[in-house]
Design brief:
Rossmann fold; 4 domains; about 25% strand; globular; binds adenosine monophosphate; binds glycine
């Protein structure tokens, strides 16, 4: 690739804002476009109104702006083959092709892959017939039992059922009422696992894999892990449950076997592979794979990256990651998400946000915008998750103190955030 790059980032949330801010630190970044972007992102990149899922539109935009590299961040364009189309047009892209992104977009695929290659995961069966799923659940007779829609469902397609009645309701609503649409044409029924959850994102070029620093998400809406599941209400890095010994074990038992399995299947994975792990009493097991950077995991992982991000992306795209060193900052990072009142159910939009400067920032922390618009120099809410306030520190306590101090200076009506991030 050229020394100086024009980069197009696809997406428009907190993850994409974090990616853009990290790209801006590189002397190799000449200009950044983001489609569609958001209010905060518009302070750092030129936003273009093309939908993240519009593949022909994105290819045309990349050609028009003479883009040197496209970073496809969200799951749905990856699953739909945006990287394939960009490559066919001769435009280098970071992210897996559709045949590898399936590791996230089909849970039936990923579960069968793990079974075939002996990668530790919860025991399960897959079903395309609701009655057969219920026969299995009754025969098994162990609760809680976990029922998952096969396809992408905005992180909401997992139902943990305490008894037969709620399992029957889950199967019915996924497979017959189709509450997650076609994602529910098949279900995975699996064993309920216990233990701390760890997120590990990893760079991979299909040949070698280099895990990033670990992190921990907080998925429930309310303090004490109560309330509904959300896209993620906050994160910390590193994850206190994940030590060097566990990292070595995961490398041997999970990370390398996954890369090899995808190669053997003729689906080499290039990009960022996300391992959602549970550290069970029987060892680490895979809860899910994502074919992309996590949101809001990215908000605490990338700020700790010391190495030039553009160099790493280039090494992945050009399949020479093995010889690319990657260094991380010691210490810790914490991200607190400020959400609209009502999220993850319905919530109002267009509420003015105060306490931010003209670039959407506050002193002492970095504000990654997830759902905002900017009009006449003011910021307004435009989504469920609105802002991710992130701070670094030499310890987790220090990072949390900085992040919460910044949160206390930002206001919008109905704002809701968890007060116990990093306190589990
Ligand atoms: P997923 O979308 O697959 O990450 O699932 C969402 C959340 O559901 C996970 O972060 C876990 O907290 C929980 N979960 C998923 N599968 C299981 C399981 N087999 N046992 C216990 N909890 C699970
Ligand atoms: N934070 C979980 C995800 O990105 O899917």
């Amino acid at each position: 690739m050229k020394e100086k790059l024009k980069i197009l980032v696809v997406g428009g949330g907190g993850r994409e804002h974090t990616i853009i801010r990290k790209l801006l630190e590189s002397p190799r970044t000449e200009k950044i476009y983001c489609a569609p972007g958001n209010g905060g992102i518009s302070c750092d990149a030129q936003c273009v109104d093309v939908k993240a899922t519009d593949i022909p539109g994105m290819v045309a935009l990349a050609k028009e702006k003479e883009i040197d590299l496209v970073f496809v961040a969200p799951d749905d364009p990856l699953a739909a083959g945006m990287v394939d189309s960009l490559e066919e047009a001769g435009i280098p892209a970071f992210g897996p092709r559709a045949n590898a992104a399936v590791i996230e977009s089909s849970k039936v695929f990923s579960k069968n892959l793990m079974k075939k290659y002996g990668i530790p995961t919860a025991e399960y069966e897959t079903f395309s017939d609701p009655a057969a799923a219920m026969d299995y659940i009754r025969l098994r007779g162990k609760y809680p039992v976990v029922v998952k829609a096969d396809g992408l469902a905005l992180g909401k397609g997992v139902l943990i059922c305490e008894d037969e009645k709620s399992a029957a309701e889950a199967v019915h609503s996924i497979m017959e009422d189709r509450i997650f649409g076609v994602s529910g044409s098949q279900v995975v029924v699996e064993e309920f696992l216990t233990g701390p959850e760890v997120s590990v994102l990893a760079f991979t070029d299909g040949k070698s894999i280099k895990p990033m620093v670990s992190s921990q998400d907080h998925k429930r809406a309310l303090d004490g892990d109560k309330g509904l599941n959300t896209g993620g209400m906050g994160t910390i890095s590193p994850n206190p449950h994940y030590d060097d010994a566990m990292a070595c074990r995961c490398m041997e038992e999970i990370f390398l076997p996954t890369i090899r399995a995808m190669n053997t299947e003729g689906r080499p994975f290039k990009g960022c592979l996300y391992f959602g792990l549970m550290l069970t009493p029987d060892g680490p097991k895979v809860i899910e794979y994502n074919s992309r950077f996590g949101d809001p995991e990215t908000q605490v992982v990338l700020p700790r990256l010391k190495t030039d991000f553009v160099d790493i992306i280039e090494a992945v795209v050009e399949e020479r990651l093995d010889s690319q060193p990657i260094e991380w900052l010691d210490g810790a990072a914490a991200c607190v998400v400020m959400a609209s009142g009502g999220y993850p159910l319905s919530y109002p939009k267009g509420i003015e946000i105060t306490g931010l400067d003209e670039n959407g920032q506050v002193a002492g922390a970095t504000v990654y915008h997830a759902g905002t618009v900017k009009k006449d120099g003011k910021f307004y809410t435009a989504g469920g998750r609105v802002l991710g306030i992130t701070a670094l520190g030499s310890t987790l306590d220090e990072a949390l103190a900085h992040a919460y101090d910044a949160v206390s200076r930002i206001h919008f009506d109905g704002a809701h955030y968890r007060r116990d991030i990093g306190r589990r």
